[in-house]
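Take a look at this chain, tokens included, and explain the fold to me:
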Amino acid sequence: MATDYDTPRKTDDDLNEDSIEELKSRRNDKSASAVDVDEFEQAEGLELPGADLSNEELAVRVLPKQQDEFTCMNCFLVHHRSQLAAEDKNGQPICRDCAA
């Protein structure tokens, strides 16, 4: 059976129902045109390195290293004992990420 590729593929019923892809693209187009952000206003909230933070207080509670944790001597991060890969030649603990 021969196929005529010039005929429309959608019927009248199909024209009333949009595909999910078409609806998503319309939603993205509408949201992209609705928001107009000024780059200068957006950059005002950024802190530059070296900013004066002398009047700021630490709002995070810091816990001491627990019995089941170690400090990696390569990256100096505190890890759980399950992340211990090995010890270097000086006997210092190394985490799995640094050993890889």
Notes: Residues 20-34 form the longest helix (15 residues).
